[in-house]
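Dear U.,

Please find below the material for section 3 of the report. The protein was modelled together with S-adenosylmethionine; I have listed the sequence and SMILES used, followed by the predicted complex structure.
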Amino acid sequence: MSDLHTPVLLKETIEGLNIKENGIYLDLTLGRAGHSSHILSKLNTNGLLIGVDQDDEAIAYSESRLKKISTNFKLVRDNFVNIDSILDNLGIDKVDGILMDLGVSSPQFDDVSRGFSYRYDSELDMRMDRRNELTAKRIINEYPLQELVRIFNEYGEEKYSYSIAKNIVKERENHPINTTFELVEIIKRSKPAKELKKVGHPAKQIFQALRIEVNDEINVLKKTLNKALERLNPQGRLCVITFHSGEDKIVKHLFKELTITEGNRFDLPINEKEKEYRLITKKGIKPSEEEIERNHRSVSSTLRIIEKI
Ligand SMILES: C[S@@+](CC[C@H](N)C(=O)[O-])C[C@H]1O[C@@H](n2cnc3c(N)ncnc32)[C@H](O)[C@@H]1O
């Protein structure tokens, strides 16, 4: 297990934020301060970095890391869906840049006790915020069959959702399903032999779906994007890094809907003129071959950037 998290699309994100040395920057997914440490090092004493994470360990680790760079930062342990109260409590109205690097960090994923990974045998948990009550174990043991099928389909795009959910329900009639390895065994049993030979772990999509449901990731993302955009100063940018197509679609469509099309602003139709944002990334930015080679976890990442006009 490692304490380190290699920040994904680091150069592209830092460039994309277009950092002003006296600006206010909000990192809504602080993690291990991989991106934040670079943001902070670009700020002068009038600048401010605000780091948010719902995980107590992320806050504690980042605090000691950032202190070595400078003191003009504030860290808040909260869910980023509460962006409005987080900023209001700090007496801040608008900021110059916001980062969302979604999902979990490597140390969370690799910590056996957190129950995120199909590679280690542990209690099914997957909570980013351990104050919450909903765990992966409760979902697996309590959700009705149709709900399990829905989350496996929607959040995991799993082809064998029904057969996996049916076997989960059958198994739990005899005894509770407590661990990651018990679940992996049921998933493997529910897929045809030819599927098990394919590249990639057979439990990957189900584990992704459970993590999204435990942390309500899709709803929280949808609610937060609009609120975050409202908090940008003119020329302020929102950078969002996603790790699967469900998330990326949400970001892509919202950014498209809110931004002006190319061309001279004065020649645009009325409804276009009223738009308040412009798209910085026409296409999502993907990691280079070199980055994927160095950090395989970057492989599915996409960065999209929007700017307040
Ligand atoms: C991919 S990691 C970020 C890594 C970070 N950029 C770095 O380089 O160290 C995502 C982090 O965001 C946090 N997170 C995810 N969703 C969150 C939410 N809704 N509210 C607050 N924190 C969240 C996770 O706990 C995790 O620490």
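For the text of the report, you could mention the following: The first strand starts at residue 24 and ends at 27.

Regards,
Y.
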